[in-house]
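We emphasize that the prediction below concerns an isolated chain of 140 residues; any contacts that depend on oligomerization or on bound cofactors are therefore not represented. The input was used exactly as deposited, without trimming of termini.
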Amino acid sequence: MTRTIQYGRVGGLGTRPQGPSDGYLERLVKYVPAEVLAFFLPAVAIAGPNRSGLVLACLFAGLLATPIWLGVHALGMPSGTRPLPHYYFLACIAFVAWAIGASNAVQIVFVLDAVTVTIILAIVVLLLPAVDILLSATGW
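Result of the prediction step, given as a token string:
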């Protein structure tokens, strides 16, 4: 269900990471079910930025579908490997942040410039994994 984030390999002090690493969008997308991603971008592209109601409807549908599809996937997993409850909430946050970063139409509807979008993505990528780790450690 989840896809592993690639951070690149560090060669030592003062060196740059080597090998492929994931950017902000690639890190967030690994929290979101593929079915939601496959729906959202084409639907928003068809709606276009001038139909803000349809863009918001697509965003709401993706937000609603994220925990539903996570639950569907969890049904086929052994009980010990199913996502903890907090993961469903974090996946919804990841979806919204990803949608903001990946869709120009969403950026236009919410009147977000490139700097704001980058900061939103950076904040979510910074905090989401740490919150996930902390909540997983507590068993919540």
